[in-house]
Design a protein that fits this description.
34% of the residues lie in helices and 27% in strands. It has 2 domains: 8-129, NAD(P)-binding Rossmann-like Domain (Rossmann fold); 140-218, Alpha-Beta Plaits. It is an alpha/beta fold. It starts with 7 loop residues before the first strand and ends with a helix. It has a 6-stranded parallel β-sheet with strand order 3-2-1-4-5-6, with helices on both faces. Strands 7-8-11-9-10 form a 5-stranded antiparallel β-sheet. It has helices spanning 16-27, 39-47, 62-67, 84-96, 109-117, 126-139, 170-173, 175-178, 214-218, and strands at 8-12, 31-36, 53-56, 75-78, 101-105, 122-124, 144-151, 154-160, 181-188, 191-194, 207-213. Bound molecules: adenosine-5'-diphosphate. Residues 12-18, 36-38, 41, 58-60, 79-83, 86 line the site of adenosine-5'-diphosphate. InterPro entries: NAD(P)-bd_dom_sf (IPR036291), RCK_C (IPR006037), RCK_C_sf (IPR036721), RCK_N (IPR003148), Trk_Ktr_HKT_K-transport (IPR050721). It holds the Pfam family TrkA_C. Residues 6-125 form the RCK N-terminal domain. GO terms for molecular function: monoatomic cation transmembrane transporter activity.
């Protein structure tokens, strides 16, 4: 048989979350099959061209999944957040059918634990995650361009270089002791200087990548 070049995705449940996953994967150029028990949602996703193909099926029935070829997909996303029983049974069906990577949406902690127990490889909590992200966006230092959250209290961020740092060297600024952050890189999107030496002069038109606590990053005078 032909070796597949690209990954294929199947999304089960075309509610708000499933539709967003489906449409985004499709726009990124991946082959994605959308399924729902609700015929109208299946028709809608096809009409809006948010999936390569779409089928109406009841995912709690292993045979329905088998007939639709769902078990042949590399990645199956179970996007049935608000129907606990259906979500658990569907995830179990996908794992028992041999799907390698099953991602499931949980709507509560206990839902997440159950999904893990039945074999979900990745459990996501979109409402919880969106709430955390919103709080960060609302309170984030406006100079921060990108954030990589290491743990709930520490991040690596890409920020503008504050005006008051302009023309000063890292040594003079003593960012480690004064601001409790470490500068990992300085530069622009097309070229960053990694591990800049203490003599490196900062320029307000450049960006810097720093690591530190969220509180420390918040205090940068940007
Ligand atoms: P959201 O919160 O993202 O809008 P919901 O959890 O409310 O998502 O929607 C889940 C979707 O899953 C609904 O469109 C529903 O019709 C579908 N669904 C529920 N049960 C099944 C099932 N047994 N088989 C397939 N799809 C299902």
């Amino acid at each position: 048989s032909l070796r597949r070049e690209t990954r294929q995705f199947a999304v089960i449940g075309l509610g708000r979350f499933g539709r967003a996953v489906c449409g985004t994967l499709h726009k990124l150029g991946y082959e994605v099959l959308g399924t729902d028990i609700n015929e109208a949602l299946v028709a809608q996703i096809l009409a809006e061209k948010l999936a390569s193909s779409a089928i109406e099926l009841d995912s709690t029935k292993p045979n329905a999944l088998k007939e639709a070829g769902i078990f042949e997909f590399d990645t199956v996303i179970v996007a049935i957040g608000n129907y606990l029983e259906e979500s658990i049974i569907t995830t179990l069906n996908a794992k028992e059918g041999g799907v390698k990577y099953v991602v499931a949406k949980a709507s509560s902690d206990i839902h997440g634990k159950l999904l893990q127990r039945v074999g979900a490889d990745l459990v996501v909590f979109p409402e919880y995650q969106a709430g955390c992200d919103l709080a960060h966006v609302l309170t984030q230092n406006p100079g921060v361009m990108e954030r990589f959250e290491l743990d709930p209290d520490h991040s690596i961020v890409e920020t503008r270089i504050p005006e008051e740092f302009h023309g000063k060297t890292l040594e003079e600024l003593k960012l480690r002791s004064r601001y409790k952050i470490s500068v990992l890189a300085v530069g622009k999107d097309d070229k960053f200087n990694i591990n800049p030496p203490p003599q490196e002069k900062l320029n307000k038109d450049l960006l810097m990548v720093v690591i530190g606590s969220n509180k420390a990053i918040q205090k940068l005078p940007i």
